[in-house]
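User: structure tokens for this one?
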Amino acid sequence: MSVVIPFPRAVRADRLALARFVPSGRSLLTAFGALAAALLALLAARETALFAVSSVEVDGGAPWVERQVERALAERRGESLFALDLAAARRAVEALPTVAEVTFDRAYPHTLRVAVTPERPVAIVRRGKESYVVSARGRVVSRVERGAKPDLARVWVARDTALTPGTTIEGELRTAVRAVTPLVASRFPARVISVRTDADHLLTLRLANGLELRLGDPSQVDLKLAIAAKVIPLLRDGSSYLDVSVPGRPVGGTGDYVPQVEVETLTSIIP
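Assistant:
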């Protein structure tokens, strides 16, 4: 009986063919050397002034807001642009009462570009003789002189109401500010000089022309204000109120009136 044992030439040939694609020791040494050099370069960029921040470019806000942002980032000058802690920088900028959002761009070798989204003022909150700008997000932006920004609605609060720039308003005051927010982007035919609300958040606006605009609950405020803007020019002279608490049935007139949405004793937030 004979046994045939195949000679493994084909396997050897395959191994020889694959060997051509395996990098040589010299190639591996060169590659590792390049990697080490790159790592050293990155380390040098972090630890030396090679990419130090020398310029901060701010865009997106009013000039005085941009100056505030520059001051908030002043301590970052001289730091490595590569190693800059952008999360900490973002917290520092967004802590400014005037800034809603911020993004950064490392413009190598030495410039930090900053794009800010400023807070959008929508109302002036009056506390006695003091006036504060409040944003669409309900944030107290800044204290201003009496009479500033006459185009914005006025919301009056009691003298003991806390209003500190950078904080966010809550409760009835927040409801009142939300109610007048849509007016900023519209051509409303009258200026709002006061807002009042009750514990159920039922809203009434007092307009500069003496008209009382009754919105009822804070739902569909955009629609109610749009309807009011169309109806106000059609009201008779001497009209004292316009009720749009039921948007499909606006009612206006003079004298006392029981609104379609029952409003129990409204407590004005005018002190």
